Structure formats: structure tokens, C-alpha cells
């Protein structure tokens, strides 16, 4: 009897009606991921659509909160792409998403960063189930690289052998 093939991260994302982008290369002196034992650290991923920075501006100013949620989801897709590139690409490669850092370019009076960050958190749970539940920081900032509204970094625990 053959073992069922675990679904890939790309398949899990596609089942949600989304597309996993290609993992982007670093644009400065850093690496996209760094592994230490079973931990995978993922560098900040900005909100991108079709390979271009997307959702430009500050939430509560030129970007609406619903678009902020979509920006967080787009940045989280970049995190997933980096995880897939650093592993065999299967959902089973991830033992636990441990932490997300969600940075939200915010208007001075905007306080809905946690709701924006849910765009990323909900995607992690949808892809990994209980293993996608994580700790999180949702931080308002004045500006982010390339003018995007959201950037996300992550710490992920991998299964042995990944």
C-alpha cells in the first residue's frame, strides 16, 4: 500500500483560490531564509501582486483597512513561497508556524493593525491547520520598503529531515 502524497503548499494555496508566487530574491545584503536546527527564519516579505509591489501607501490614509487585510495576505503568500523554496514544498514540512511579525504602514491615528494582520494569520491557519496558529506582533510603522502597506517576517519550526 502506498502512502498518500502530502499536499504541497502551492496546492493548499490554490485550494483557497489563491496563487503561490515564486520566492523572491533578496534586494540587499541579507538572505531570504536562514535555518538553525529545526527553525527557519524568513526575512520580511512585502505585499506583492504579479511580482510588483502592491497596496502602496498607509492604511487609514490612502489604503483602506479591507485592502490592508489583502496586503497582509499578499505578504503572507511571499512568506509561504519562501518556506516552500527552503523545504520540499509540502505542507507536512512545517511542524509549526511559531511567530509572525506584521509591520503595517499606518496613518498616525490608525489603530487597526491587529485586524490587518489577520489577513496573514488566517492564511497560515488555512494552509497549515492547527500548525499554522502562531504568536504574532502587529506593529504600526511610518513607512515600509518600496512604499507598500504591509511587510511580514516569520519563524517556522520544520519537521525533521526538511
UniProtKB/TrEMBL annotation:
Domain Endoribonuclease L-PSP/chorismate mutase-like, chain residue ranges per copy: 13-140
Entry superkingdom: Bacteria
Protein name: Enamine deaminase RidA (YjgF/YER057c/UK114 family)
Database matches in InterPro entries: Endoribo_LPSP/chorism_mut-like, RutC-like_sf
Phylogenetic classification of the source organism: Bacteria, Pseudomonadati, Pseudomonadota, Alphaproteobacteria, Rhodospirillales
Signal peptide: none
Record CDD domains: YjgF_YER057c_UK114_like_1 (cd02199)
Biological source species: Novispirillum itersonii
Amino acid at each position: 500500500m502506498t502512502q498518500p502524497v502530502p499536499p504541497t503548499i502551492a496546492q493548499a494555496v490554490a485550494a483557497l483560490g489563491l496563487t503561490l508566487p515564486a520566492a523572491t530574491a533578496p534586494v540587499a545584503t541579507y538572505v531570504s531564509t536562514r535555518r538553525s536546527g529545526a527553525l527557519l527564519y524568513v526575512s520580511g516579505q512585502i505585499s506583492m501582486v504579479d511580482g510588483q509591489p502592491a497596496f502602496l501607501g498607509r492604511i487609514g490614509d490612502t489604503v483602506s483597512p479591507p485592502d490592508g487585510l489583502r496586503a497582509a495576505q499578499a505578504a503572507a503568500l511571499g512568506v509561504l513561497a519562501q518556506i516552500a523554496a527552503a523545504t520540499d514544498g509540502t505542507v507536512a514540512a512545517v511542524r509549526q508556524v511559531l511567530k509572525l511579525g506584521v509591520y503595517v504602514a499606518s496613518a498616525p491615528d490608525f489603530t487597526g493593525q491587529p485586524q490587518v494582520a489577520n489577513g496573514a494569520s488566517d492564511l497560515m491557519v488555512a494552509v497549515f491547520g492547527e500548525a499554522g496558529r502562531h504568536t504574532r506582533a502587529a506593529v504600526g510603522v511610518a513607512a515600509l520598503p518600496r512604499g507598500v502597506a504591509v511587510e511580514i517576517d516569520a519563524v517556522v519550526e520544520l519537521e525533521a529531515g526538511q
